[in-house]
């Protein structure tokens, strides 16, 4: 009944004094555009739990109740703000501001210990939390949550989320996907849709959120999820959430009873170097160009934003930047001429420990055409070209760097 998961082990200046004498009116100058607003600095670490027990052995899916309490104490001592799912969704839409460092607590499946062990501690700390439940396990036996337990938690700070009907494992989903498309579509609509309908009807709560069972998702699920009415979908890929994180693949740190390192990574908000902080030298004679993740840096997210700041490249041809990533080849990176940034949001987990990136571009120059040696009265092709110059592209220039995925984040258990 447990979730098979891919887990992480891994901006008014004062007015100037008046001039003592009037000065001649200067020539009109072009207004300098205001710099773009700073991006939202907030980051959210979403913690994912399953089962709890003080007496049973710890497993990947089950942690000591006392350890759970210690983790909440650590969150408090670190000064992290624990937010609700409603606050998270409003922040993601731009309707709410959050502190720079936040955490959110989610609990999957519907184990009875969620109510008997975790819920009293969460109430003690005053923390909101989210239940991702799958339909077939509710009222499913001695170790499962009952409807009344769920209602009690919903009345005291819990948010309700869907986790499918039967909690199909990734291998089951892959098998279904290998068959006829219509059958797979019906399978998705049942698992994703029936669960939502059941939860909303049974508990009288709107359910716009979904956690992929086993963290496994495919592009086929996105339109189905939108059709059914899910606005935010959650994975088990580790990493801090930013406002720009895609709503269909929101990362979570799944907290394991057997690997404390995951919680350490989740609650580590040491500043991740921004593009301005990490730079590497370009080809000889070129300025340094900021990149992110920084060269030689270590990240704990296998779906990072890879970015290069080419704003210092003189006469950059805006149609020329290309990004290549090891294991992916040429990727659909987007170039923003206004900022000079070339960026690609990784959309498939980086599997290797080291990621190698190459960004290439061309610059434009003005060709100088030699003056004619003798006068001519004919309008030749050469004479037409005898203008101040025309754009020409230089040979490609390339910027290369590598960064490292934290070994624990790169870990994936065998399916």
Describe the structure.
This protein has 415 residues and is an alpha/beta fold. The protein has helices at residues 65-77, 85-92, 113-125, 147-154, 170-177, 181-203, 221-228, 261-266, 381-384, 407-410; strands at residues 43-49, 51-52, 62-63, 81-82, 101-109, 129-133, 158-162, 209-211, 232-234, 253-254, 279-281, 288-292, 298-299, 305-309, 322-325, 329-331, 334-336, 341-345, 354-361, 364-366, 391-393, 397-405. Strands 1, 4, 5, 6, 7 and 10 form a 6-stranded parallel beta sheet that branches. A 5-stranded antiparallel beta sheet has the order 11-12-14-18-17, with no helix packed on it. Strands 13-22-19-15-16 form a 5-stranded mixed beta sheet. A hairpin with a 6-residue loop joins strand 11 and strand 12 (288-292). The longest helix has 23 residues, at 181-203. It is globular, with a radius of gyration of 27 Å. The two termini are 15 Å apart. 35% of the residues are buried. The model is unreliable at 1-32, 34-38, 272-287, 367-388 and 410-415 (pLDDT under 50).
């Amino acid at each position: 009944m447990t979730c098979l998961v891919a887990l992480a082990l891994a901006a008014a200046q004062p007015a100037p004094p008046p001039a003592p004498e009037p000065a001649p009116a200067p020539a009109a100058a072009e207004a300098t555009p205001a710099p773009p607003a700073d991006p939202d600095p907030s980051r959210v670490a979403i913690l994912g739990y399953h089962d709890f027990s003080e007496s049973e052995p710890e497993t990947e899916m089950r942690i000591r109740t006392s350890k759970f309490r210690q983790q909440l104490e650590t969150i408090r001592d670190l000064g992290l703000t624990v937010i609700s799912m409603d606050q998270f969704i409003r922040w993601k839409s731009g309707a709410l501001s959050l502190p720079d460092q936040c955490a959110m607590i989610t609990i999957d499946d519907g184990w009875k210990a969620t109510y008997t062990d975790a819920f009293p501690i969460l109430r003690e700390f005053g923390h909101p939390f989210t239940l991702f439940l799958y339909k077939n396990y509710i009222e499913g036996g001695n170790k499962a949550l009952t409807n009344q337990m769920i209602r009690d938690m919903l009345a005291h700070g819990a948010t309700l989320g869907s986790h499918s009907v039967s909690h199909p494992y990734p291998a089951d989903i892959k098998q279904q996907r290998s068959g006829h498309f219509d059958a797979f579509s019906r399978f998705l609509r049942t698992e994703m849709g029936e669960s939502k309908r059941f939860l909303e009807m049974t508990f009288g709560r709107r359910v716009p959120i979904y956690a992929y069972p086993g963290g496994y998702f495919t592009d086929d699920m996105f339109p189905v999820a939108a059709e059914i009415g899910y606005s935010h979908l959650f994975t088990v890929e580790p990493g801090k959430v930013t406002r720009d994180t895609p709503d269909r693949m929101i990362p979570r740190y799944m907290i394991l009873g057997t690997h404390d390192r995951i919680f350490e990574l989740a609650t580590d908000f040491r500043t991740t170097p921004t593009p301005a902080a990490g730079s590497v030298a370009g080809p000889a004679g070129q300025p340094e160009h900021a990149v992110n993740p920084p060269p030689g840096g270590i990240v704990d997210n296998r779906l990072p934003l890879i970015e290069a700041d080419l704003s210092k490249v003189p006469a950059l041809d805006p149609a020329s930047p290309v990004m290549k990533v090891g294991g992916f080849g040429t990727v659909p990176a987007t170039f923003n001429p206004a900022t000079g940034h070339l960026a690609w949001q990784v959309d498939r987990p980086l599997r290797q420990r080291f990621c190698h990136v190459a960004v290439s571009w061309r610059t434009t120059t003005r060709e100088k055409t030699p003056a004619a040696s003798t006068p001519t009265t004919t309008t030749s092709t050469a004479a037409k070209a005898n203008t101040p110059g025309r754009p020409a592209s230089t040979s490609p220039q390339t910027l290369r760097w590598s960064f490292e995925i934290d070994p624990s984040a790169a870990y994936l258990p065998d399916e």
